[in-house]
């Protein structure tokens, strides 16, 4: 199994954190992992993306030109990365901030109302964990136990009290993901 993915959106949406948690969760499952962040000088408000590869085998390079999965959180990222999803791959997106939804017909498309659900949960900061949960529902490559261990490894200890809230957000994301198109 090899999962090559990109997570892309604005700085401040938890893009890099989501990738880091994915990477640590993969390590907890004894997988080979790369985490390759990219962000502009603006950081918060500027575009940010992270490439994550999780594999049973050794990874030769963290640089990818096409992806099995793209998690897209803004229009600029959709415009840039939709075409880079492999045919038959997965594109998961939050419609908040996306005015022109994905149009490809040769990929699996899923929508998650992460922003809206985070507000309903009373904590907009769990947005990325809702999206992460939707991803895990669509591509169950990691166990929830190892995701919890990944959260413990990637979050500073002062935030460990928020792990139960993050796990609740992940479970909510699993519940609300909506299939738009399957191929």
Largest sheet: 7 strands, mixed
* Low-confidence blocks of residues: none
Neighbour order of strands in the largest sheet? 2-3-1-4-5-6-7
Give the oligomer, counting copies of the same chain as homo and different chains as hetero. Answer: single chain
Q: Write down how many β-strands occur, each being a DSSP E stretch of 2 or more residues.
A: 7
Name of the top-level CATH class: Alpha Beta
CATH architecture: 3-Layer(aba) Sandwich
Radius of gyration: 15 Å
Structural class: alpha/beta
Can you write the helix and strand succession as a string? EHEEEHEEHHHHE
Count of all domains: 1
**Helix content estimate:** 25-40%
Strand fraction equals: 25-35%
Q: Count the DSSP helices.
A: 6
At the fold tier of CATH, the topology name is Pyruvate-ferredoxin Oxidoreductase, domain 3
CATH superfamily: Pyruvate-ferredoxin oxidoreductase, PFOR, domain III
Distance between the termini: 20 Å
What overall geometry do the principal axes of the alpha carbons give? globular
The whole-number mean of residue pLDDT values reads: 93
List the helices and strands and how they pair.
Elements: E1 2-10, H1 15-28, E2 32-39, E3 47-55, E4 67-72, H2 75-81, E5 85-93, E6 108-111, H3 114-120, H4 127-138, H5 144-154, H6 163-176, E7 178-181
Parallel strand pairs: 1-4, 4-5, 5-6
Antiparallel strand pairs: 1-3, 2-3, 6-7
Helix pairs in contact: 1-5, 3-4, 4-6
Task: Write a structural description.
By secondary structure, the protein is α/β, with parallel strands linked by helices. The protein has one domain (2-181): 3-Layer(aba) Sandwich (Pyruvate-ferredoxin Oxidoreductase, domain 3), CATH 3.40.920.10. The chain has helices at residues 15-28, 75-81, 114-120, 127-138, 144-154, 163-176, and strands at 2-10, 32-39, 47-55, 67-72, 85-93, 108-111, 178-181. It has a seven-stranded mixed sheet with strand order 2-3-1-4-5-6-7, with helices on both faces. Helix 2 (75-81) links the parallel strand 4 and strand 5. Helix 1 (15-28) crosses helix 5, helix 3 (114-120) crosses helix 4 and helix 4 (127-138) crosses helix 6 (163-176). The chain starts with a strand and ends with a strand.
């Amino acid at each position: 199994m090899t999962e090559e993915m990109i997570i892309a959106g604005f700085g401040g949406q938890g893009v890099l954190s989501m990738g880091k948690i994915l990477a640590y969760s993969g390590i907890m499952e004894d997988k080979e992992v790369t985490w390759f962040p990219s962000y502009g000088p603006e950081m918060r408000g500027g575009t940010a993306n992270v490439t994550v590869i999780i594999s049973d085998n050794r990874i030769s390079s963290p640089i990818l030109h096409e992806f099995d999965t793209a998690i897209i959180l803004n229009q600029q990222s959709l415009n840039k990365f939709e075409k880079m999803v492999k045919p038959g791959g997965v594109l998961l997106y939050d419609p908040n901030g996306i005015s022109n939804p994905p149009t490809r017909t040769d990929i699996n498309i899923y929508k998650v109302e992460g922003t809206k659900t985070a507000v309903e949960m009373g904590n907009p900061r769990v947005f990325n964990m809702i999206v992460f949960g939707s991803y895990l529902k669509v591509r169950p490559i990691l166990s929830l136990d190892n995701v919890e261990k990944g959260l413990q490894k990637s979050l500073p200890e002062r935030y460990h009290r928020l792990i139960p809230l993050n796990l609740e957000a992940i479970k909510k994301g699993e519940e609300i993901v909506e299939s738009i198109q399957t191929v």
